[in-house]
Write a structure and sequence with these properties.
The chain has helices at 12-24, 35-44, 61-71, 86-94, 107-137, 148-164, 175-195, 209-242, and strands at 4-8, 28-32, 49-53, 76-81, 99-102. By secondary structure, the protein is α/β, with parallel strands linked by helices. The chain starts with a strand and ends with a helix.
Length: 243
Amino acid sequence: METRILIVDDDPFICRQLEELYSSQQYAVASVPNALEALRLLQEHEFSLAVVDLKIPGTDGIGLTREIRDRWPDLDVIMITGYASIKGAVEAIKQGASDYITKPFQKEEILLATEKILEKRRLLDEISYLRSQLSDRYSFANMVSRNRVMHEIFETIGVLAAASSPSTAPPSRTRSSRASSSATSAARSRVRSTTGWGRSSSPPPARSSSMRSSRSRSTCSSSSCASSRSARSRSSARTAASR
């Protein structure tokens, strides 16, 4: 993409010098004498850098820089001024200027500042692009499978993720919450039936020999008690007959 630079200065001599300097470096250049014209051009065209004089008609360079940074946050600004002061430099940087250069300046100085700012912007744009590419490439939506079971798992994970997302509604037991709970339970059951997740692989516990022996003793004890009662009954009957 073409690198366009906007010069905002009411001094025609400075504008002409900067136009020639930037054109020799294969930059596209436009110059305006005041803030109103600068804002009009910024709305009509895309620029990579603005070189703004501190003293311009309509408003000062500080106010223009602040408005540029508010409306076009990716547009860098170099402040130039013939009234050098530490306070002015600090204020310019505070309002969003990327650099602060005093007049008269050497062409190497302004070119070096320009190249540094444009290179930094290129690196930031590249990082942003690479991050977006990585985010799209490794997102869950880009997982592809021809396996029917995997398709069911993807669908189930989507249902669970939607059901687990925080809601701004009050925690009342409404029909929608019951439906969401039912969908979540069905999804979890589908995962278990499809993948075996949550299913126990061990057989049910066998009854121990001690429990069987205990039940056996209990049975024997009950039968012996019944025999004892029967013997006592026969003995009582004989005693009564002998009398």
